[in-house]
Design brief:
The structure holds two protein chains of two kinds. Chain A is mostly helical. Chain A has one domain. Helix content of chain A is 78%, strand content 0%. Chain A is built from four helices and no strands. In chain A, helix 1 runs antiparallel to helix 4. The two termini of chain A are 15 Å apart. By secondary structure, chain B is an all-alpha fold. Chain B starts with 13 loop residues before the first helix and ends with a helix. The chains are: A mainly alpha, B mainly alpha.
């Protein structure tokens, strides 16, 4: 699993986190640009999950295999779930859901990266 | 069972952010317990059963906060209270008797493995529930 790619996607997710915080702080609503940003981060997440699955298929065995698989399964659903849960309610603080979701993506990707560093 | 007149039809605003946080921890605790119990249950049965229990509590808290109506609110109150007692009890026990917890749970060391979010979360939940019940 490429450390550079993980770092890039994590930075994108962090930028999205800060953007969501700013949106709440400025009392703005979630607009189309946010959704485009979220889509970009989600594409990065999918690329990393693809890389992880490819590594598993080609014989890489993380020491904590089950945990690694669980993270790869959960990762793609974080942002869609957070986005849905945010826009289903138009009150402004609900954008904080995006903050939670984007930050969770950062943590999950970093954990996946660490899990793939320790192989059996 | 619906809420009192004038109650919002669904959880709004800050409450939704809280539900999102709870959902993340519900998934984290349940999958952690699933992995631990499925792969190596004999190693630390107490810690793993505790993981599973905390997972169930987080799921109930998530549902209780996400749904509205008096019954779900009672579920949320109960789940957040159990969670607060659980994280404090397990936090003390894991420091006092580390041998009993050879593998960590979400609540070990007051949730230090999760930047203490498990300790803050039930407090936020209870504060939110209290504020909401006063608003009505």
């Amino acid at each position: 699993m490429s450390g550079t790619l993980v770092a890039v996607v994590c930075v994108l997710a962090l930028v999205m986190t800060v953007w969501a915080v700013a949106t709440v702080a400025l009392d703005k609503r979630v607009q189309l640009p946010h959704l485009v940003g979220l889509a970009v981060v989600e594409l990065g997440v999918l690329a990393l999950v693809g890389a992880g699955v490819a590594a598993l298929v080609s014989g890489t065995r993380p020491a904590e295999l089950a945990t690694a698989i669980a993270y790869l399964v959960v990762a793609p659903f974080l942002l869609p779930a957070a986005t849905f849960w945010t826009i289903a309610d138009r009150s402004r603080p609900s954008t904080l859901v995006l903050v939670v979701g984007c930050f969770a993506v950062v943590v999950v990707l970093y954990r996946v990266y660490l899990l793939f560093q320790v192989t059996a | 069972m619906s809420g009192p007149a004038g109650a919002p039809p669904r959880t709004m605003g800050l409450g939704r952010a809280l539900v999102a946080l709870y959902a993340v921890f519900a998934v984290a605790a349940v999958s952690r317990a699933g992995v631990q119990i499925a792969t190596d249950f004999e190693a630390a049965p107490l810690a793993y059963l505790l993981s599973a229990f905390s997972g169930v509590v987080y799921v109930l808290a998530t549902l209780g906060l996400a749904r509205t109506g008096a019954r779900w609110r009672r579920v949320a109150w109960a789940a957040c209270s159990v969670e607060l007692v659980g994280v404090i009890t397990v936090g003390f026990l894991s420091l006092a008797d580390p041998q009993a917890f050879p593998d960590s749970t979400v609540w070990s060391g007051f949730g230090s493995g999760y930047v203490y979010v498990p300790l803050v979360l039930p407090v936020l939940g209870l504060v939110y529930l209290r504020r909401e019940s006063r608003r009505r």
